[in-house]
């Protein structure tokens, strides 16, 4: 990313901006103390039909983001008042769709890309756990895994939505891929699946390179 001025208008000191290609590829960094969720002002939010309360991050960052995006918005973070649960009720969750973890194997993406005219990067599918060394779609068979020292239940396949058609670098929505191709060999009741949703059964720290151990498989 290329460096840019400290703010779009010059009115927000101590911010450093960088931007690349499209509005979705930007980041800003400020040397400030993020408010503690327990002390921040609580505001109403809605996430996929869930209505609750989240911690507001303050007027300064709201003004900066509103100026950049051209619309009024607030930045919020999960706090004690959120209380949102995963779709199966087994785990707390912040602002993700339905589950805290999404796992995809590198071999699964490779198998899909072999069928596509234009291969796609892993980040098109937004997993936060990527596994190397397993076979194509082997994660479909897993029931319980250990991610480093953290246990996790593999609860359900991830049904993919139209966002996977959008090129993050340009913001352009494609002509139906990868959903069209996934529909040829990954179609299930309700849609097409790619990746597995997980719920962690404990707490710990995950790092790149941690081993993934399959403790139980589906019968």
Q: Would you count the extended β strands for me?
A: 13
* Helix-strand category: mainly beta
Q: Tell the overall outline.
A: globular
Fraction of residues in helices?
10-25%
> How is the main sheet built?
7 strands, mixed
Oligomer: single chain
- How would you state the average pLDDT, rounded? 83
Unreliable spans are 1-26
Topology:
Layout: E1 2-3, E2 15-20, E3 22-30, E4 42-47, E5 50-56, H1 59-69, E6 76-77, E7 101-105, H2 106-113, E8 129-131, E9 142-147, E10 150-159, H3 179-185, E11 187-188, E12 191-200, E13 212-217
Structure description:
- Strands 7, 8, 9, 10, 11, 12 and 13 form a seven-stranded mixed beta sheet that branches. Strands 1-2-3 form a three-stranded antiparallel beta sheet, with no helix packed on it.
- 12% of the residues lie in helices and 34% in strands.
- It is mostly beta strands.
- The N terminus is likely disordered.
- It is built from three helices and 13 strands; from the N terminus they run E-E-E-E-E-H-E-E-H-E-E-E-H-E-E-E.
What are its keywords?
219 residues, mainly beta, 7-stranded mixed beta sheet, 3-stranded antiparallel beta sheet, 3 helices, globular, disordered N terminus
């Amino acid at each position: 990313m290329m460096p840019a001025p400290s703010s779009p208008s010059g009115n927000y000191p101590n911010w450093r901006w960088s931007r690349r290609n499209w509005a979705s590829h930007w980041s800003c960094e400020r040397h400030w103390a993020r408010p503690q969720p327990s002390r921040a002002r609580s505001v109403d939010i809605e996430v996929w039909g869930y209505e609750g309360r989240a911690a507001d991050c303050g007027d300064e960052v709201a003004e900066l983001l509103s100026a950049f995006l051209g619309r009024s918005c607030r930045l919020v973070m999960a706090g004690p008042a959120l209380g949102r649960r995963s779709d199966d009720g087994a785990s707390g969750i912040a602002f993700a769709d339905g589950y805290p973890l999404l796992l995809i194997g590198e071999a699964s993406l490779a198998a899909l890309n072999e069928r596509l005219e234009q291969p796609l990067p892993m980040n098109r599918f937004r997993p936060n756990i990527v596994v190397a060394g397993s076979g194509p779609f082997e994660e479909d068979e897993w029931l319980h895994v250990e991610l480093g020292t953290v246990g996790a239940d593999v609860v359900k396949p991830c049904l993919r939505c139209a966002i996977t058609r959008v090129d993050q670098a340009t913001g352009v929505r494609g002509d139906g891929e990868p959903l069209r191709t996934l529909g040829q060999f990954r179609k299930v009741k309700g849609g097409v699946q790619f990746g597995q949703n997980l719920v962690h059964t404990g707490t710990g720290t995950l790092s790149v390179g941690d081993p993934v151990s399959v403790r139980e498989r589906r019968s």
